[in-house]
Specification:
The chain is α+β, with helices and mostly antiparallel strands. The chain folds into four domains: 159 residues, 2-Layer Sandwich (Beta Polymerase, domain 2), CATH 3.30.460; 81 residues, Hydrophobic Seed Protein (Orthogonal Bundle); 173 residues, Hypothetical protein af1432 (Orthogonal Bundle); 49 residues, no CATH class. Helices cover 53% and strands 10% of the residues. The protein contains 23 helices and 14 strands. An eight-stranded mixed beta sheet has the order 1-10-9-2-3-6-5-4. A hairpin with a 6-residue loop joins strand 9 and strand 10. The N and C termini lie far apart (88 Å).
Length: 477
């Protein structure tokens, strides 16, 4: 359905002119070569919403090699790593474009790589897109721009509802990752899912198994970093997708009987996630590490759950078990090592504060807390504070005040002792000189001893540290 511009098209054109004035020159180049070019997908959606940026997606009737030639003449830089899938990208000034030949993609029953076929019309290209709100186009090479909306995406955009251009089964079979994308859009854009889309996700959830872990990770991270991750996570759990990509989360829905009461761990975890997000300004904004840690911090509870005789439930060492489970899951999703280490460390440490009592920790215990948190001390502050979800206002106030006391002690010790740069009072070269050693395991053990001494007693100075080192070495030998 090609229509006159109308209000939506006029807004899209104005956004394009304001935010990406160079795009019209690219359209002129395609037209001169006899090919069509249209702004498409999320770029049209964002243009209608008035939030178009300089990254633009186009579709074209030109073959990929022709697109590369035209873009090479237009852009200051070109990259064609996606040319096998019909995509060529380029950048001119502040405008980055991706131009893709009319196409459709579909996955075989067991394949993790899509088969790409090129199409003959933009309508066919739009039909194979994920959702109607992304199946709109703005044709730019026909003289007067034409707004193309064959599947009523504009209507669904106004109603804030996600539908598929064809049947959900057809769309999710073509690319099962679209099921995760539906949950992500619900979180990012505050959209609801059409009933048939939700049903299709439930019926086809198992098909997500053919999608690579890397693609699943990227989509889940976008969901988690959205403004409302609870909505998307709830959809993943409801449809059964979470059972396949993040099974530890739905398992948090522990049974609660009338004699053994405990918090709803699943709801508690979502609340901790939301409360951590409220504190993220301490981390400079949306932060993947803290959001992963908040969501997963209690995943060790199902495996450690123990019903206490006479009523009650315990979860002894769930932080240790949870850290191990989180490491395994994040590795399976191909998260990078630094992210995995940070998240698992935070989970392992998230209960440490509860030994603080009313401030009975010694200075050495405070130093260990800082040392073990390392570069993620502020993350640990955020997670620990977010983990307080008690409805008892008095208890919540006491916990907050107690943690504030701990943070103030840490700050004071930092000023006095430079805690974040905590090192032995003498270095490895001096240790080797004093003990007449060559580089060896013994040198590392000596430095470990000196660091423990530094943690226990605070800064000693080189002279005192030397005396203690020599005494330790003498006793050791």
């Amino acid at each position: 359905m090609t229509t006159a511009l109308g209000a939506a098209g006029e807004l899209a054109i104005q956004s394009l002119i304001n935010q990406a004035p160079m795009a019209s020159t690219l359209a002129d180049d395609f037209r001169r070569e006899g090919y069509k070019l249209a702004l498409v997908g999320g770029s049209v959606r964002d243009a209608i919403l008035g939030r178009l940026r300089g990254d633009l997606d186009f579709t074209t009737s030109a073959p990929p090699e022709v697109s590369r030639k035209i873009i090479s003449n237009w852009a200051q830089s070109v990259w064609d790593i996606g040319i096998a899938f019909g995509t060529v990208a380029g950048k001119k000034g502040d405008t980055t474009v991706e131009v893709t030949t009319y196409r459709s993609e579909s996955y075989g029953h067991e394949s993790r790589k899509p088969a790409v076929t090129y199409g003959d019309s933009i309508e066919e290209d739009l039909r194979r897109r994920d959702f109607t709100i992304n199946a709109m186009a703005l044709e730019l090479t026909q003289g007067k721009p034409q707004f193309i909306d064959p599947f009523n995406g504009l209507r669904d955009l106004g109603a804030r509802i996600l539908r598929t251009p064809g049947t959900p089964e057809e769309s999710f079979s073509d690319d099962p990752l679209r099921m995760l994308r539906a949950a992500r859009f619900a979180s990012q854009l505050s959209f609801t899912l059409a009933p048939d889309v939700l049903l299709g996700m439930k019926e086809m959830a198992a098909r997500i198994s053919i999608v690579s872990p890397e693609r699943i990770r990227e989509e889940f991270s976008k969901l988690l970093l959205s403004k409302d991750p609870r909505t998307g996570i709830s959809i993943l759990v409801e449809t059964g997708l979470a059972d396949l990509i993040l099974p530890e989360v739905p398992k948090l829905k522990l049974e609660i009987d009338e004699h053994h009461h405990h918090k709803d761990v699943y709801e508690h975890s979502l609340t901790v996630l939301e409360q951590a997000i409220e504190l993220e300004d301490r981390l400079g904004g949306p932060n993947l590490v803290i959001r992963l840690a908040a969501l997963l911090h209690d995943i060790g509870k199902p495996k450690t759950r123990n019903l206490i005789e006479g009523g009650g439930v315990s979860f002894h060492h769930h932080e240790v078990v949870g850290a191990r489970q989180a490491k395994e899951r994040l590795k399976a999703l191909r998260y990078d090592g630094e992210t995995i280490d940070a998240v698992t460390s935070l989970i392992a440490l998230h209960l440490r504060f509860h030994g603080y009592g009313e401030g009975e920790w010694t200075d050495s215990a405070v130093r260990r807390y800082v040392r073990d948190a390392g570069d993620f001390l502020i993350h640990l502050h955020v997670l620990t504070r977010a983990d307080c979800t008690t409805r008892n206002k008095r208890k919540a106030e006491i916990l907050a005040a107690t943690y504030q006391n701990l943070e103030e002690r840490i700050e004071l010790l930092m000023q006095e002792e430079e805690l974040l740069a905590m090192r032995p009072d003498i270095d490895g070269a001096e240790v080797m000189r004093l003990l007449n050693l060559k580089p060896s395991r013994a040198v590392g053990e000596a430095l470990d001893f000196l660091l423990e001494l530094r943690i226990e007693q605070g800064p000693l100075g080189p002279e005192k540290a030397t005396q203690e080192l020599l005494k330790w070495w003498s006793a050791r030998n």
